[in-house]
Amino acid sequence: MLHITNGSSVALKQTNLPGDVIYWADVLHEGPVPAGLSLRELSRIRERFLTDFYPDPAALESFVRAGDSSLAYLITGLRRHLEQFPGISNGLSRTERQMLQVIAGGAHRFQEMFPAEQKMEESIFMGDTTFLCHLDRLQHSRIPLVVEDADQRYELTEFGRAVLAGAEDHVAVNGIDRWLGGVYLRDGAPVWRWDSQNARLRPSKQARSL
Fold it and tell me: Which of 45, 90, 143, 184 has its CA 20 to 30 A from that of 159?
């Protein structure tokens, strides 16, 4: 059995799983990565590559909707990726929405929230560090959706409850500045939204400045 992990920080020894492990350490596995450049110069080249080649997710959505049966696992993963775009009804990605739902449902500590949210997924794909990054954004938005008290318990703010109920829109109020794959969701550009009811991406009006 062969296990391919996302970087050397993912250790499998403690799991006692049999088989060989390959640590996939190169996240820049597509596009130009010229040698001898400073981090700033390389970052500019990578940004231009992503902007030029992946600015519009409509082609990706078309590929997913075509549903090539020979690429079933890829199609499933890409569809889940599209669900990370802000929701059309409240500006929350699927992950963000599920986080608020588990808190509203009574999970208030990280060790309760993380497994509860992961159980809402068809296929578990997220580690705890990434989960905390999403949680941090919800806490430190201009108007926070989540707060943490001195006992490390997480609660929804009034605004967080309103967004979860669809009475407020997270992106419209707090703005957005985030790369999602090769799509830069930012102020001054149309923000693609995920319409979960129809399983479609929709371009929306410009985001508010952060």
Answer: 184
